[in-house]
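Exercise 7. Predict the joint structure of the components listed below.
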Amino acid sequence: MRLLLVEDELDIQGFLKRSLEEAGYQVEAAADGKAAERLAIDGAFDILIVDLGLPDQDGIALILRLRQLGVRAPVLILSARRSVDDRVRGLEQGGDDYLTKPFAMAELLARLRNLLKRKNPPGNEITRLRVLDLELDLLRREASRSGQILQLTPQEFVLLEYFCRNAGRVVTRSMILDQVWGMRIHPDTNVVDVHIYRLRGKVDSNGQQPLIKTLRGVGYVLKDR
Amino acid sequence: MSSKTGNPKLRSAAWRISLWATLAFAFGTMLVFVFLQWFVENDIKRRSDAWLSGEVEVLGNVAKRTPKNRLYGRVVGEVAELAGREVPNKLPSESNANNSVFFLQRGADNSLQLWVGAGSGEDTLRAIVPRRMLPDQPTDIRVNGFAIPFRVACLRIDDGSQIYLGLSERDELRVLNSLRLRFLLLWMLIVVFGFAIVFLTTKRMLSHVRRITEAASRIGHSDLNTRVPTTQRNDEVAQLGLTLNRMLDRIENSMHQLHTITDSLAHDLRSPLTAIRGKLEMSLSATSHGDQAEPIVSAIEELDRLAEFLNQSLDVAEAKADALRLTRNPIDLAELIRVMIDLYEPSMTEKGLQIQFPSPSSATIEADAALIHRMIANLFDNELKHLPAACTVTIRIQTEDDSVSLIFEDNGPGFSPEVLPLLFEGRVKGRGSNGHGLGLAFIDAVARAHDGTVTAGNRETGGAHVTVTLPLDSRENIGSSIAVHAAK
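Solution:
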């Protein structure tokens, strides 16, 4: 996966490049709009990360310019500004995504995956999810582990489904709140942790190998091996 | 003045202005006319009296000097008739009989000695006899069969008889009457016409003002692009519109400035936060020892809290300046509370708290989803952080005509008295709270941005309450408040 990173703050560019490379992306970085344009024309990129506040031009202007030049790759917009202005909303509707600084790396990676998935949508909808000995029937809304049915509330099922769809990948509390409850909030209480704790009690019960792992300071991960 | 009863037109300023203007005009013109009429009436009377006094004197002399023989009647009668032809202001009468003047001589025994005039004179004699009259002072005497009283002068002559000369002012009064009638008709026409003109003009003028008011109230917190309508004319109303628009330009400018400041402040703080967070995450993934990871984990958590605090502070600051930018969408408050309860219930149960939500009706508001979500999460967080175990939180939704109230009540210890007056100030936190103390200030800010209010305090039965009241449909609400203002 070739990724073009357009970010003027070298500190941020540095750690993003390293983290993205660790996640398996082949990263080219540009610190301003001109460099980004040159790189974008030369190399075919699968995805772009563009910071809105560039020194030589506005990030949105750059994206529109690249689109004119024939760059079709989806764009993840980064912004440290407060408001999502209308032009960004327009781009969001065009299939691109938006992330506010500061962000968790896990969330950035999840957004990138979603953008790439949207570009190549899967042929048919899955009705079953399987992670190790955990199995989810999406039609009957039933979950079982090692053949044993788990007694889950509807909300817990949605939560577990989200974990299974992202098995092996880190999910943050913000991502869970956004995807499972549909809210972009940042409570300063442990609401999500208690939900996970309950779910874990049902999924990882009676001495089985624990599947839901807590990564302190980062989030949670559902083990897939 | 009640704004909900009565015809709104009757309470409009145009109606009042035209009513008062017309009343003043009608009263003034009426006063002038009454004075003129009084003046004319007096003048007629004065002239009649002068004539009467002169003529009665002459007739008295004639009666005195004429010997009382059988010619007496003819002589005096003819003199009287001649005098009658010289009546002042006389109109040509249809009949030959001159019934506007009479001459009467009354004997000492109250008998009719001589009569010159229309009819027999008996009626006139009967009218005169009971009256005590002074010479040289003409009086009004009403005679049977005549609508208008006669002006009568009298003179006593030596033989004990009295002579009376009477003059009817009916011709003058008829003219005066017809003048009065015409004036009244014209006066009414002018008054009605004047009222219509004043009403239509003021209404037209004030409708410009109303359009300006409507447009001005449509210009909400976040929508400062529109301007009030202006007219081509250079009158006061046009000036008002221009002034308002200039004011809006300035407000928009300072609003823009404020947004630029908060944006750049956010940018300048978030960029280093992003870099720090990234580096912390990288060193966290590099460390495998739990002991070394602990400080990094707590640093990341602190940093996230700081970022959220920054967001809320800037929201509160912008809301205090009425400059918070909203993206309104329909939100079902009851449904949202159900989802929130689903999210918070496990944590509450964990802490030994109960939630009651007895009002499952739907209440849809037009609001900014992200802000409302964060506001309600804040309300739940407050309860979760501050309530001791075994307490109950009761959430209610009350729908009024044009607003909906979201009420959080608990049976805990309530707000402590020292923070009670400072609840919405921000930077206030109860003992043992690890928040930033922005909670209620943020809730207040979000409610304000949506034209709502927040009240908080302690309940009489113990425990705290927070009530957020939001308008049900802001657009409709603005429309009706205009109607009320216009009606006032």
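Discussion. Chain A has a mean pLDDT of 88.
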